[in-house]
Design a protein that fits this description.
The chain is built from four helices and eleven strands, in the order αβββαβαββββαβββ. With 214 residues, it is of the alpha+beta class. The chain folds into two domains: 82 residues, Alpha-Beta Plaits (2-Layer Sandwich); 94 residues, Alpha-L RNA-binding motif (Alpha-Beta Plaits), CATH 3.30.70.1560. A hairpin with a 2-residue loop joins strand 5 and strand 6. The protein starts with a helix and ends with a strand.
């Protein structure tokens, strides 16, 4: 009798163990999305650290937990977007997502309509043909800050400004495109990424967008 009772008690304990669910850790609250819009100066790296004692984002941005969505070359200026949202970061940087970006570009010389049309149609670079671009002549933006140091202009050669919008993000693509048609880029300012722009941002300043605002 004692043996049977022990066996029954053991079965009950085993059954309770099977029914007992493991303790579940409470979900961590999801952090609200933040977007940082930064007007990057010339000669600043699009990263927070550098072993070469060069200027980085850490010299300008005091906002923890955000990372650059894409890059802007050290010798380029203008809009850089940072975020704590990994999905948004991927969306803005993956080639297949085709996020439109607009650049204001000062070139050496005065491109004719045929040269501009070549950019609109797409040119073949050493890494393949570019997709069609939106290209227009523009006046120098009235709000533009002086570059430090200034660009090197040749007095005998005029310069002109273009607005170039592309949906690709190859390395130094806009510079290579203008060089391909014979008009080297002297100065490059990124004005827009998707629906975000430089409007209201002085050079070297940033603005944080929270939640629905972003």
């Amino acid at each position: 009798m004692h043996q049977r009772n022990s066996k029954t008690a053991g079965q009950a304990r085993s059954s309770n163990a099977r029914r007992r669910k493991p303790l579940r850790r409470p979900d961590r609250p999801r952090e609200a999305r933040r977007i940082v819009l930064f007007n990057k100066p010339f000669d600043v790296l699009s990263q927070f650290t550098d072993g070469g004692n060069r200027a980085t984002l850490a010299d300008y941005i005091q906002e923890p937990g955000v990372y650059a969505a894409g890059r802007l070359d050290r010798d380029s200026e203008g809009l850089l977007l940072l975020t704590n949202d990994g999905a948004l970061q991927a969306k803005l940087t993956q080639p297949g997502k085709k996020t439109s970006k607009t650049y204001y570009v000062q070139v050496e010389g005065e491109p004719d309509e045929a040269a501009l049309q070549a950019l609109r149609d797409g040119v073949t670079l050493n890494d393949g043909p570019t997709l069609p671009a939106k290209v227009e002549r523009i006046d120098e933006p009235h709000w533009l800050w002086p570059r430090n140091p200034p660009i090197r202009e040749r007095k005998a050669i005029p310069t002109s400004w273009l607005s170039i919008s592309i949906i690709e993000g190859r390395n130094r693509q806009v510079r290579r495109m203008t060089a391909h048609i014979g008009y080297p880029t002297l100065r490059l300012i990124r004005y827009r990424i998707g629906s975000w722009t430089l409007d209201g941002l002085a050079n070297g300043e940033y603005r944080v967008l929270h939640g629905n605002e972003s």
